[in-house]
Design a protein that fits this description.
With 1456 residues, this protein is mainly α. Helix content is 62%, strand content 2%. Strand 2 and strand 3 form a beta hairpin. The longest helix is centred in the N-terminal third of the chain and has 30 residues.
Length: 1456
């Protein structure tokens, strides 16, 4: 009750005015006129005794003052309520009595009421619940007064600032919200601008402190902040006002800007001392930073004003309190990296970055640097945040650095120079994932003649002056960069560089860091300020071991250090290499390097002995008992910190509104991971670069402490992927996976254990992985491919000894090896993994064009799917690219209970996937399909035998064979398909044999059934027979080209040509291995394959040219006997020859023709027939009777008769042989005698030969020489060296007794002096290369006096000696090395045999040359040409002993 004290009756019952009036109206019924009179009387009575302030409050809270509907029809009455009229009347009466306007009176009264409401509140900014209710009622009254023009907003705003207690911030905001008086008018009406600014700043700070979790939609705090900032922005960053309003708005504009600047200072000051600040203040600043959310100002603040505000704020941040000098920045900038900068400051930067593109930010930063004095802490931390939060910032920062350096050298401006260096170093602090190392930048900028400093002498002087001025402030690692990677300087200006280097060395000495103690492989871009020499030496030892593993040689840097850096080598490197440990049973790479250094006398015997003793002591200590608990406990705390930060990352990933905070959190994770790695690897090893990553597929090893870290990271990543997929599809998950993977790549010591762990999971434990694991790992692999440039090359090996390895693989090529479909489990896993990877990629980048998609997606996953999906799904085999495509949805792929077959089939039908497989790069070719299929183990295959055969038949005959070559098929050409199958099978066998070299022991073994599925071999046989059948049928129609090469031998020839000349032992081994595999492949095919048929006129003839070419080029050079092929090869030829004549017009004549042709074109065939005739003849007879009814053809008959003749000759039943071809007779005679061990009878039989048998004896001597060589290099053939040497000696003696020249056997065929080039063409090239060994072995076994008189001896002896020297010069020290034989085939004492033979041969020549007849020197120039520069002493002996040489000597003396 607001009645005066005299109205006691009015207070009875405590009823309000409205209640009294309402009660009277109910008790007394009267007409309209009486009612009006009664109201006027009551108003006069009350107005004389009423307190206006209480009246306003009381009327505002009256239930009668609410809007009501008075009519029965439901329409609201437009008449004013009684309390409204009463209040207005009272104010008017009171104003009349006082003589003031009613608006002024109501304004004063309202201000007094507000002061009453907020009385006893103290220093607060928010109303209590009770105050808020009262104030809400009071606001309704003010609205009523406004509606009756009984209230002045302007006067009310002025009165508000005259109150005794400060205005409550919420009161001002609610007056603004309810349109009583706007904040603009309220702020403009304040008489004291500094006081206004002080009140606003203190109130806003207090408001931020009184809330816990503010946001733009939280009432009232968030709305209060937003509305006030809207007013600040509209007034402080408005467009230039009109002239008339300029002065009026200047005051409020200045006040608004002052408030924002004060709040900015509060924010930056708090961020500067965040660690020491009260947590409530830090929370308040975070609350204030929510005003930088642009979404809150849409539609309320002009975009231009908002951009101007953000730009102004960023400028203020960069230039705030610029007290630090550049020298301070050099010293402190390492502490300003993103991870070490105040989270408040980085959060502030990220808020400011939201309205700008990276290009705009860099441009603005450049403008600020050029025009203002800056706060280096803020500038450099801003650069770090920019690099972390914007993926495209790296190139922009590089452009900025280039701009600064150009301006610096154009104007010789030190400020631009120091700015560029500070920014480059700051950017490098964020790791290689964000920016190139400082050493790389320095080399790019100044390491060449085109560098910024190379323009003139003045530029060089300026540059070195700048570097010299930096020296007192530099950290050691930067001085090392400048010394180890010096800038390019022309020779005449080298003193400038030397002067700087001297100064830098002096500064390093102050740090007690000597260049001499720098590591061999020190990372000059390490973030560490000082690397201890001992730790660096440990890194160097590990790098040297890695290089030694790759090269098998002592690294050159180690050898150089042992000579030129002896102090570091002996005091640092060797102790680090010889750290005692438990030695492995099989010497590892470290031990092998130590042994090599010991043999090279680079490790002293005392140091080596101490190392061995120390290793024994470590082993004994281990046996006594030890525990890794201390190490595990030491690592526990950093791991827990890392785990906490990883868990803090997940909510940011799943909330799209918080994605902007993800880069900062990942940077914090990176910092914690650095702490873990430093604890694991050592303080200075965590940043050590890796030259290469070595991965053993068979036994991937991960250290226990590394596995804990890697498993934590992988688990967190998989959980993040699944959590993010529950809330949004990949395209709306942000860039967190890319940032996460780039962060990992920045920690290079983590990459080897990470990849090894992936190998364990994907290659060995794939069946144990759940769908969540598979999906998470697939996403990880997709983004590892994306970051492939940050991952070092990978050396992949298999087996314990890593005998078969692939070096220098990119990470994108690694997955093909880990996703090996060898078993049913691995095949199913491959489908699951590749389905997830490709589906994720297509969903992650839906907006990419087809060309962009093809450029980014690695084809390996798509090809794997083309292999496994049709293999495991019958439905997929019938789907074409023209069928209806299914819609691709990541939701169905990321379900925990996923049916992988349905998911894969859904992807298979998807339109974008079908488009991909039409691209050439993504098409699975027949060759690739075969390589994958050959890796499958039939015993563990998911398909049964019948299902596998059905799949193979579909793949080969229905899919690849009819497909076009552009689509990876064969254009319907069976021969092309056969060639691909053969080539691929050989490729596969070649790779498989790298791990198992047992084929050398059994080169006649067949390929197909040994380890892999025989079904592919069956398909090949089926196709080859189809080719042969089609070939035969097509001949009469003349469809084939007479000159077309046999598809099989074309493949063989191309593969051998690709291997090169086989000039080294290693190349010869590969070449021999390839020929052995080709021979196996040939033997696995039907004999008809080797003999071709071609049209000759109207007839069909046999053609063996391609086969003969393969035998001469390949098979001839792998036969261990030297002049005879294996029985299988020989048998296949004769069976194929007889079988192929079935379609010939004149079969008997064709057989004769081929056998006659082989004597000239491929004599080793006839030699092989002679060696194997006892086994071969029954087979030939059987095959002949199967095809023909008549007697043998003349060619076969002559061979049979020759064998009978040889048998009779050796049995002393005949005096001669029936053959007209001496070398064929010699082949049969030599073979029979050796197989029957009838050398004595052969020697006696040879005496019965007449004088015309000289050529036969020479051929026999030739075969005995070849056998002698075979006995030395392949003793497993059963040949005995002494016996073969003895038999060759007897043949030589026989020739001497008959005065038949035997030297022609050793004459070089290429010089045109060999009497029988056909016979030499039947012997392997490797055996022919060893003829000099046989020559001198025989010659020195005889009395050499008897041969000196022969005219041809000198030429042949010098030629053979020269060839011996050439063998030695090529690095061959043993006879067996020429054939690339295994070490196990060498006998004891043989390693020096060639050198010994050379010495004896040289001695023989020096003794023989003076005693040779002058006729032997007829071709002196040729003899001198043979010696060349290999042996000047032999050359001089030839000149001195010949008459022609004496004349030459006289001419030389006359000239000089």
């Amino acid at each position: 009750m607001a009645a005066a004290s005299g109205g006691a009756g009015g207070r009875r019952g405590g009823r309000a005015v409205s209640a009294l009036l309402a009660g009277r109206s109910k008790k007394q019924k009267c007409g309209p006129k009486d009612k009006q009179k009664l109201q006027e009387a009551a108003l006069r009575l009350l107005s004389g005794h009423q307190d206006l302030g209480d009246l306003l409050l009381e009327v505002g809270s009256s239930p009668c003052n609410k809007p009501s509907c008075a009519s029965s029809s439901g329409t609201c009455t437009s008449e004013a309520s009684v309390p409204e009229l009463f209040v207005v009347s009272a104010l008017q009466d009171q104003a009349s009595l006082l003589g003031v306007p009613v608006g002024m009176l109501s304004a004063r009264t309202a201000a007094n009421n507000i002061e009453k409401i907020s009385a006893a509140s103290g220093q607060v900014v928010l109303l209590t619940a009770e105050q808020r209710d009262k104030f809400s009622c009071f606001l309704q009254t003010l609205k009523d007064l406004l509606s009756h023009n009984a209230f002045s907003r302007l006067l009310f705003a002025q009165e508000m600032w005259k109150m005794q207690s400060p205005l409550i911030l919420e009161v001002a905001w609610r007056l603004h919200r309810e349109s009583i008086v706007s904040l603009d008018d309220l702020l403009e009406s304040h008489p004291d601008a500094p006081a206004l600014v002080e009140w606003l700043c203190s109130s806003l700070c207090l408001l931020c402190q009184q809330t816990e979790e503010p946001s733009s939609d939280t009432e009232p705090t968030g709305s209060i902040l937003t509305d006030f900032v809207v007013v600040f922005l509209r007034n402080g960053f408005q467009k230039p006002p009109e002239l008339g309003k300029k002065l009026e708005l200047q005051k409020i504009s200045e006040s608004c800007c002052a408030v924002l600047e004060r709040m900015l200072s509060w924010t930056l000051d708090t961020a500067a001392k965040e660690k020491q600040e009260d947590p409530s203040v830090v929370k308040a600043v975070k609350c204030w930073l929510h005003i930088f959310s642009t979404a809150a100002y849409q539609g309320t603040v002009p975009p231009e004003s908002l951009l101007q505000f953000f730009r102004h704020t960023l400028t203020q941040v960069l230039t705030y309190n610029p007290q630090l000098q550049a020298s301070d920045a050099i010293r402190l900038q390492r502490e300003w990296s993103f991870a070490r900068t105040s989270p408040l400051l980085t959060l502030f930067y990220r808020k400011l970055f939201m309205v700008y593109k990276a290009e705009e930010l860099i441009l603005h930063l450049q403008q600020v640097l050029e025009t203002s004095e800056v706060n280096w802490h803020h500038v450099l931390s801003c650069v770090s945040t920019l690099l972390i939060c914007h993926s495209e910032a790296e190139e922009l920062v590089k452009d900025l650095l280039g701009h600064l350096l150009r301006k610096a050298f154009e104007n010789y401006d030190l400020e631009n120079m120091i700015t560029a260096f500070l920014i480059a170093r700051q950017a490098a602090l964020e790791g290689p994932a964000a920016f190139m190392p400082y050493s790389e930048w320095f080399k790019v900028a100044f390491g060449s003649a085109s560098g910024f400093h190379g323009g003139s002498k003045k530029a060089l002087v300026f540059f070195f002056k700048f570097l010299s001025e930096l020296v007192p402030f530099e950290a050691p690692q930067y001085l090392k960069v400048h010394i180890m990677h010096p800038p390019f300087v022309p020779t005449k200006y080298r003193p400038f560089l030397l002067e700087y280097v001297t100064l830098a060395r002096t500064r390093l000495a102050d740090f007690k860091v000597a260049i001499e103690d720098m590591g061999l492989y020190e990372d000059l871009s390490s973030l560490k300020e000082a690397v201890q020499p001992h730790s660096q030496a440990l890194q160097d030892a590990e790098k040297a071991i890695q290089i030694f593993e790759h090269t098998g040689k002592i690294p050159a840097s180690v050898m150089e250090a042992s000579i030129f850096r002896r102090s570091y080598y002996t005091s640092r490197f060797i102790p680090a290499l010889l750290v005692p440990r438990v030695l492995p049973e099989v010497p590892d790479s470290r031990m092998a390097l130590i042994e090599c250094l010991k043999r090279a006398e680079k490790i002293s015997p005392n140091a080596y002995s101490a190392y061995i003793e120390g290793c024994r002591a470590v082993k004994e200590k281990l046996w006594q008992g030890g525990s890794g608990k201390a190490e595990a406990d030491d690592l526990k705390e950093p791991l827990q910190l890392l785990k906490a930060e990883l868990e803090a990352l997940r909510p940011l990933i799943t909330d799209q509104d918080r994605h902007d905070a993800v880069p900062a959190q990942i940077a914090i994770v990176s910092e914690k991971l650095t702490g873990v790695l430093e604890r694991v690897e050592g303080a200075d090893e965590a940043a050590a670069p890796r030259l290469r990553i070595e991965l053993n597929l068979s036994v991937p090893e991960v250290e226990q402490h590394d596995q804990g870290v890697v498993d934590l990271l992988l688990t967190s990543f998989c959980q993040n992927v699944m959590a993010a997929s529950c809330f949004s599809p990949p395209e709306r998950q942000g860039a967190w996976p890319s940032l996460w993977v780039k962060m990992l790549c920045g920690h290079q010591p983590l990459l080897p254990p990470l990849l090894s762990r992936l190998c364990q999971l994907m290659y060995h434990q794939c069946a144990l992985l759940s769908e969540a694991h598979v999906i998470g790992l697939a996403v990880l692999v997709v983004h590892l491919n994306e970051a492939k440039d940050l991952i070092p090359a990978i050396d992949v090996c298999s087996g314990v000894l890593c005998s078969g390895s692939l070096r220098g693989l990119a990470v994108t090529e690694l997955w093909a090896h880990l996703l090996a479909c060898m078993t049913g489990e691995s095949t199913v896993f491959c489908m699951r993994f590749c389905t997830a990877a490709v589906s994720y990629f297509l969903c992650k980048f839906p907006s990419l064009s087809h060309d962009e998609l093809c450029a980014l997606l690695h084809p390996g996953f798509v090809k794997k799917l083309q292999f496994v999906v049709p293999r495991l799904s019958l439905e997929a085999r019938g789907i074409s690219c023209h069928e209806d495509a299914a819609e691709l949805s990541w939701e169905r792929f990321s379900q925990p209970a996923l049916c992988y077959r349905k998911a894969a089939l859904c992807l298979w039908k998807q339109a974008r996937f079908r488009e991909l497989v039409q691209e050439k790069a993504f098409q699975l070719t027949l060759q690739e399909w075969l390589l994958m299929e050959l890796r499958v183990h039939p015993d563990t295959d998911v398909l049964s035998g019948s299902e596998r055969r059905e799949f193979h038949h579909w793949a080969v005959f229905q899919h690849f064979l009819p497909a076009s070559a552009a689509a990876g098929g064969c254009d319907g050409d069976l021969r092309k398909a056969c060639a691909v199958l053969v080539d691929t099978a050989l490729d596969f066998c070649q790779r498989s044999e790298l791990d198992n070299c047992s084929y050398l022991q059994d080169p006649q073994a067949s390929i197909p059934h040994r380890r892999r599925t025989p079904d592919i071999h069956f398909r090949l046989q089926e196709m080859v027979m189809n080719v042969v059948t089609v070939h035969r049928r097509a001949l009469p129609e003349g469809l084939l080209d007479d000159h077309e090469e046999h598809f099989l031998f074309r493949v063989f020839r191309q593969r051998l040509r690709a291997l090169g000349t086989a000039s080294t032992v290693g190349e010869r081994l590969l070449w021999c291995q390839e020929v052995v595999l080709q021979s196996r492949m040939l033997l696995s095919l039907p004999p008809l394959t080797v003999i071709a048929t071609r049209p000759r006129g109207n007839q069909i003839a046999l053609d063996c040219e391609d086969y003969f070419g393969f035998v001469n080029a390949g098979l001839r050079n792998i036969c261990t006997r030297g002049w005879a092929l294996s029985y299988d090869i020989t048998h296949q030829f004769f069976m194929g020859l007889l079988g192929a004549t079935g379609k010939c017009s004149k079969p008997i004549q064709e057989v004769n023709s081929i056998l006659t042709l082989s004597q000239d074109r491929c004599p080793i065939i006839i030699c092989s027939a002679a060696w194997w005739w006892s086994r071969l003849e029954p087979e030939i007879c059987f095959e002949w009777r199967r095809h023909f009814r008549g007697p043998f053809t003349q060619g076969l008959k002559s061979l049979k008769e020759l064998q009978s003749s040889v048998n009779s000759f050796l049995s002393s039943e005949a005096a001669a042989l029936v053959s007209d071809t001496p070398w064929i007779s010699a082949a049969f005679l030599h073979s029979t005698a050796q197989q029957q061990m009838r050398y004595e009878k052969l020697g006696a039989a040879l005496k019965r030969l007449g004088p015309a048998a000289g050529q036969l004896l020479v051929c026999l001597f030739f075969f005995s020489v070849v056998d002698f060589i075979s006995a030395r290099v392949t003793p497993e053939e059963g040949l005995d060296v002494p016996r073969t040497l003895d038999w060759s000696s007897k043949m030589l003696q026989c020739l001497e007794e008959r005065r038949v020249s035997w030297l022609s056997v050793f004459s070089s065929a290429e010089k045109g002096q060999s009497p029988n080039p056909v016979l030499r063409s039947a012997v392997s090239d490797q055996h022919l290369r060893l003829f000099p060994v046989a020559f001198y072995s025989l010659l020195l076994a005889f009395d050499s006096e008897r041969f000196i008189g022969e005219q041809a001896l000198l030429y042949v002896a010098v030629d053979m000696y020269t060839q011996l020297l050439q063998l030695f010069m090529e690095g061959t020290t043993t006879v067996a090395e020429l054939l690339g034989q295994r070490e196990g085939s060498l006998r004891a004492g043989e390693p020096e045999d060639l050198l010994v033979l050379i010495r004896r041969a040289r001695h023989f020549l020096l003794q023989a040359i003076p005693r040779c007849p002058q006729s032997s020197f007829a071709n002196l120039q040729q003899l001198l040409g043979l010696c060349g520069e290999l042996d000047p002493e032999i050359k001089a002996a030839l000149v001195n002993s010949s008459a022609e040489g004496a004349l030459l000597a006289q001419e030389d003396s006359l000239l000089f």
